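Hey all, sorry for the wall of text incoming. These are the two entities for the joint prediction.
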Amino acid sequence: MIRLEKRPQPSRVWSLTTPLVAVVATMIMGGVLFALLGKDPVEAILTIFWDPLFGEFAFYYRPQLLVKGAPLVLIAIGLSLGFRAGIWNIGAEGQYIIGALTGAGVGLAFYPMEGWFIFPLMVFAGALGGWAWAMIPAVLKTRFGTNEILVSLMLVYVAEQFLASMSLGLMKNPEGFGFPGSRNLQQYASAHNAEIVTGTGMHWGVVAALIAVIFAYVLLNRHMLGYHIRLTGEAPRAARFAGVKPARLILFCLGASGALAGLAGMFEVSGPAGQVSIDFNVGYGFTAIIVAFLGRLHPVGILLAGGLMALTYIGGDIAQGNLGLPSAAIQVFQGMLLFFLLALDLLTNYRIAFGKPEVA
Amino acid sequence: MSTSALLTLDGLTKAYPGVVANDKVSFVIGTGEVHALLGENGAGKSTLVKMIYGLVKPDSGQMTLRGQPYEPAEPRQARADGIAMVFQHFSLFDALNVAENIALGMETPPPMRDLAARIRDVSEAYGLPLDPYRTVGALSAGERQRVEIIRCLLQDPKLLIMDEPTSVLTPQEVEILFQTLRKLKSEGTSILYISHKLEEIRALCDQATILRLGRNVGACIPAETSARDMAELMVGTALKTPERSDRTFGAVALAITDLSVPAPSAFGTALRGLQLSVRRGEILGVGGVAGNGQDELLSVLSGEVTTARDAVMFDGQPIGHMGPTARRALGVLTAPEERLGHAAAPDMSLTENALLTGSVREGLETRGFLKWGVARSFAETIIKAFDVRTPGPENAARSLSGGNLQKFVIGREVLQRPEVLVVNQPTWGVDAAAAAAIRQALLDLAAGGAAVICISQDLDELMEISDNFAALNEGTLSVPRPTAALTVEEIGLMMGGAHGMEVAHV
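and here's what came out:
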């Protein structure tokens, strides 16, 4: 008989090795899946994990890793603070959209004036927009006890409508021949989030993501506020006993995650995307939830998870194009990764024991 | 003593990884005998009765019931063989009524009306008044215990096992329970009575078996043995009684005037018109049956629940509106009853748990940045000073045994040099030696000029250390009276007498 025994305390070894084991298990099971589809499993796995990094066209894909990974990491870092405290912001996608709109809005308002101060102002406006959008569920929760999961999620759809309205109306390019979408900020030097070193994919959003990782690490490990966040998540009653004011923590966590999501949206719209358009958002805000958990809500883990997620996206695209794998198979593959990770996570707190069960 | 053996235990052994819970335990329970099982926490009493009740299978050894080999595979079989058990922690649903709760525990429950009638019959026959249609959430702890006892009696048991039955009762309720147990005994039912309250055992039991570290270390006839001798058998060494040095009371350190707080939840207790004051050097004991407002009183004092500014005063300064951190800065410290999840975070290390309340007074942060090194050495100081058994401060709080964690939680507050210390159930689940150490620490604090409020359900503890005694009863606090002049009967009446049986007159 096989049974699970709770460990007296979480195993450090397993908490570090399970992500690696999960990746290996995904490769094996994914390989089986691809083989059943009639593809060479080794080639498929290599295409997904190897080609973007070291393949023939890696010079093109490597910068893409940073471009795709940075918004995921930036948003996931913000979300992880709340998730650690049991505050569930599911609406990062909406905060991302609003941040993009306020950031781009400030830039477009100055057009065609040139000045060094425009881009910093846009950064500030982007963060502020995301923060303000996240304050709606935060204030409703602290004032009226509403559920932040529902409110933040529903506000995503409001933000999407707002985005459509903006790209068809107020922010529409007057010289755009009637097509929806704003002016292209890539062609407006003062507002362009350009690559810092050409050809690397390194833009200001990547810098912001790295700063956020360091900031979150210091906050959680060295600061009272981070300690209170962790304490609230692990033992809410003990947190109140320690003097944590739950309302203040809710405002901080939702505010911080909203501001970071807004920043991510702003860096995206002024850089890789270039313009406000109806289909500007591609789900980074939702994928970041997976990244946050994949990284075990730990800043360094999230950095690695963001990279891994970006890798499977890019590698999956290549596999679809080159090997003709159906996109559903790629999605199953990505789902497997999350599944194995969460399943193996059990081993951190439990050990598998063989023998007769016992009621004690 | 008794005529014939009902249950014979022979060489029962049960080992868990790292610890032998029972090591070749043998004794005999006679028919119609009240047999006490004595021992400190961790002595192996619980494991032993779980083996008798079929919850745990022994590694070796035999049991014989009425001359037949007895090997219960599960509690259902034990019940079928006439063995019933009342657990220390009740398993009742607050939202259901008494009869529904009892029906839930039965294999084939009769129709509700018949069951209610049977409950009435049994409760009258054994002097345990209980209305089958009352909602359990509205019952006192004593009445809840009656539900559990009647649930057992409906099975017509031959052996009734009772695990620490009196820890939730007032002295009057204890007397009623004893009358019931004596009646059962006269009808030939055997009772295995687990407790560490020695005076009760002396009053009730015919035989006693004493366990220490999993071994049977002796038997005695309680009526002919002094409580002190039994205690020394349990502990294995001569007992050290906490010393009360002469103390002089100073100015009033903490005062509550006319404080009322609504109940925090449906089954919580509202505090009504509370008045109390503690002087420096004084220990105020607050007794009362669990669930009469102890938790609520503690949260009002800790600052988890804030009140009108001057409802709570410290050194003449209003602190009612202050949160826990501001109160700690002033020196008003508290230690709640629930260790895991309230006083300590289970999955955090002891260092992190030292930080939980120690950050202000021990200087564990500068402008919000944590000083982990200092926090760690504070945790080490607590571990050393209060003899907390753990490999080191990096271990998670949940890896400690209840008693060890209790020592840590109390030590954490005592070592922060409190001006006022409020503790709730300071020695709950702690072995006798450690309990004595904790009580001594509280006495020393008071001798050093601190005011101490000790909320406890252990009357012996309150009699031992407190200068004045007040009782919580349904959210109201009686007027404190000097402990030395009180008798157990008076205390019982202050606690509300026998709940639901007579009106309290104080």
